[in-house]
Design a protein that fits this description.
heterodimer, A: alpha+beta, five-stranded antiparallel beta sheet, four-stranded antiparallel beta sheet, 10 helices, B: mainly alpha, Rossmann fold, 2 domains, three-stranded parallel beta sheet, 17 helices, elongated, membrane (chain A), transmembrane (chain A), transmembrane helix (chain A), ALA-interacting subunit (chain A), CDC50/LEM3_fam (chain A)
Chain lengths: 352, 395
């Protein structure tokens, strides 16, 4: 009856029964006893986080907005102006005929000094380069290498042409290439031509890897003409207009890089631009705009990032103030048991 | 209180409560006669042990001792409810956010059905990029520790009142999913509509969508961390690992040539300052709404478990003290009955007077060195036999 005997008895019996123990092997993972941090979102943390965000975001917003404000952009919509008045009621006839004179002269005024490089863009509106059938209509394999010339699976209807009863592939095939933009712009200042550099307008990876240097255009625009014609002697990797065009845009209103002007333009200068208004946007009421723009470290003239950062940083600081105010007005001491629901309404336990 | 009931009557009483009072019923039993009751209730708990394994085989949960029922209900049952709610609501939320961004894009494609994201992004989103962290939450999340769960059994009411899966909770989450999808989509689209680089070059559809997908993966994973009450090392590993897996995947996918639009997209993206600027802005703005909501909710409309957390926030994490330990902390009575149960003779299912003879038991007890208590009828019988000649007890 002595505790010693009982303990001793238990010890020996447990030694005898240890081999029968069904206790599972202990590990912190299986017993859910991993060390953990249990974060509690106290008002202190909320206020600290908001202050921190506000302090970081406002300077970034200011820097972005400052950069964007320093970008100078000239935009000039020309698709309506460049149709001669006699064809004003029948623009389609004008644009589709090869006899009409497509030349159009416009004057642009430089609002502020523009430092080189000045980028020339063409902007299209209501042109759905992101339409499902359009995006599909290309053959990347064919663009990359001459050996894949016959890979025109997704390109129909611009996939092959019948040449003396044999199906010959169109290179580059597909609707994207077929509808390539073909307006041209020639700039001059005080009767002196301004050179537009058309090299290096496509992303380097496209030029080097996506478009092969052994692929030459073949049978291109041999049926219904949808856009630009390509020089059959220049390989695709050097046809930068095509490369830029084939990087399909995300939105129906998009701009693409046409070239670079590498001289400075002073304020109030009058630039004359001769536009060849070749591209047909009239059949679907699309718009064409010519854009000249400088860039900054954050890109073109887009206040969005700067405004977003500033607004949000300001909002965070405002939240700090209102949170502090609300906390002062209606404080809740941390860990106060009187806020437990069964302490607040004691008969709540009996109800469901 | 019912006594002398047959197994059928036990089942009938359970069904009466189940259907009549329309409550969730739990029945617990250890013998073969409890099987029908266990099967009749919503939750059946069987105790494995002396009476055999029939109850265990018919039950939903099997425990070893009756006292483990507190842990089953108050600790593990409660945690289980919390974890399931978090996992299910998180799954809806992350897919809603992801899919809504695609939905907003359809307005810009002339409703032609062009997808915003590449096929591989969509397929692997739920498989690699967002799968593991939510599993970690489902395994390890605890709102309060085990000992606190037992100290405040009223916390169990949260499950009964369905606090974490009410329509209001789900609707709030859906609202924030909508808000986040709008933020991600519009910020990325609006900021990339013109050139984003000093080189003046323009992005295409796959650049924009990869940027948006990047923001979605980061946002959704960080949102999970905001949802946790307990953050273990595995949470950090899985969240960080998922985001890292995304970067590894996209670096490989856009690095190795495939005749798809994604080739070299990511390398173009990371060469611009725009990528980092957007990566800082979009997840923070997207999560701002949730963060503010959680801060306000905890301060002005706290749940009970949150108050309990705050009350015990300075206590060390003595998590090993909460869960039951078998065999180490038995009382002396329990230890003795356990030892007696291990005696060879007692393994027999035949109990009753005939098998309780003191000589039988005390022999084995003395062999094993266990103190077997005297049976009361034995003491009484010996007292009444005092006048008879004593037969030797030892064999």
């Amino acid at each position: 009856m002595s505790p010693g005997a009982a303990e001793g008895g238990f010890e020996t019996s447990s030694a005898a029964t240890k081999k029968h123990s069904k206790k599972p092997k202990y590990s912190r993972f299986t017993q859910q006893e991993l060390p953990a941090c249990k974060p509690i979102l106290t008002p202190g943390w909320v206020i600290t986080a908001f202050i921190f965000i506000g302090i970081i975001f406002i300077p970034i917003g200011l820097a972005s907005l400052f950069a964007s404000e320093n970008v100078v952009e000239i935009a000039d919509r020309y698709d309506e102006d460049c149709v001669p008045s006699i064809y004003a009621s029948d623009t389609l006839a004008y644009i589709q005929s090869s006899q009409t004179n497509k030349s159009c002269t416009k004057t642009l005024t430089v609002p502020k000094k523009m430092k080189n490089p000045i980028y020339v863009y063409y902007q299209l509106d209501n042109f759905y380069q992101n339409h499902r059938r359009y995006v599909k209509s290309r053959s990347d394999k064919q663009l990359r290498s001459k050996a894949n010339e016959f890979e025109t699976k997704d390109c129909s209807p611009e996939a092959t042409v019948l040449v003396s009863n044999k199906e010959m592939p169109i290179v580059p095939c597909g609707l994207i290439a077929w509808s390539m933009f073909n307006d041209t712009y020639r700039f001059s200042l005080n009767d002196k031509a301004i050179q537009v550099n058309k090299k290096g307008i496509a992303w380097k990876s496209d030029r080097e890897y996506k478009f092969g240097s052994d692929v030459y255009p073949k049978k291109f625009q041999s049926g219904v003409i949808g856009g630009a014609k390509l020089d059959e002697n220049i390989p695709l990797s050097q046809q930068e207009d095509l490369i830029v065009w084939m990087r399909t845009a995300a939105l129906p209103k998009f701009r693409k890089l046409y070239g670079k002007i590498e001289v400075d333009l002073e304020a109030n200068e009058k630039i004359t631009v001769v536009i060849q208004n070749n591209y047909n946007t009239y059949s679907f009421r699309g718009k064409k705009t010519l854009i000249l723009s400088t860039t900054s470290w954050i890109g073109g003239k887009n206040d969005f990032l700067g405004i977003a950062y500033l607004t949000f940083g300001g909002l965070c600081l405002f939240m700090v103030i209102s949170f502090i105010f609300l906390y002062v007005v209606r404080p809740r001491p941390l860990g106060d048991p009187s806020y437990l629901s069964w302490n607040r309404n004691p008969d709540g336990l009996l109800l469901n | 209180v019912c006594c002398r009931v047959s197994p059928l009557q036990k089942a009938q009483v359970t069904s009466l409560v189940k259907k009549g009072a329309r409550k969730i019923t739990l029945s617990i039993g250890d013998g073969a006669n409890d099987v029908s009751m266990i099967q009749a209730a919503h939750v059946g708990v069987g105790i494995s042990g002396l009476e055999g394994m029939q109850a265990v085989m018919a039950s939903d949960f099997a425990i070893a001792q009756f006292r483990f029922l507190t842990d089953l209900l108050l600790v593990h049952g409660r945690w289980s409810y919390l974890r399931i709610c978090k996992v299910v609501t998180y799954f809806f939320y992350k897919n809603l956010t992801f899919t809504l961004t695609q939905f907003w894009y359809t307005f810009q494609t002339g409703f032609s059905g062009q997808r915003f994201y590449d096929d591989w992004f969509q397929s692997l989103y739920n498989v690699i990029f967002t799968a593991l962290p939510v599993i970690m939450v489902g395994l390890f999340d605890k709102d309060v520790s085990a000992s606190l769960s037992k100290k405040y059994p009223e916390l169990y009411k949260e499950g009964i009142r369905n606090t974490f899966f009410k329509w209001r909770v789900v609707a709030t989450l859906a609202f924030f999913a909508l808000y986040q999808s709008l933020i991600v989509y519009n910020f990325v689209i609006a900021s990339s509509s013109i050139s984003v680089d000093s080189s003046g070059k323009m992005f295409g559809i796959w650049d924009v969508s990869t940027m948006a997908f990047n923001c979605i993966v980061v946002t959704v994973n960080l949102r999970l961390l905001m949802m946790c009450d307990t953050i273990t090392r595995w949470h950090h590993i899985s969240v960080g690992g998922s985001i890292l897996a995304w970067f590894v995947f996209i670096l490989l996918y856009s690095g190795v040539y495939t005749p798809r639009g994604i080739y070299s997209v990511f390398y173009v993206l990371i060469s611009t300052i725009y990528f980092y600027v957007i990566l800082l802005l979009v997840p923070v703005v997207a999560l701002f709404g949730d963060f503010l909501f959680q801060g306000v909710q905890r301060l002005f409309f706290p749940y009970d478990y949150q108050i309990v957390q705050e009350m015990h926030r300075h206590e060390p994490d003595g998590s090993s003290a909460g869960l039951l330990e078998i065999g180490n902390q038995l009382t002396p009575d329990e230890a003795r009955s356990f030892a007696v149960a291990q005696l060879p003779g007692e393994k027999s299912k035949h109990t009753g007077f005939a098998f309780d003879s003191p000589g039988y038991e005390s022999f084995f007890a003395s062999q094993a060195g266990v103190l077997a208590p005297q049976k009361p009828w034995d003491v009484a019988r010996r007292a009444s036999m005092r006048s008879r000649a004593k037969t030797p007890r030892k064999n």
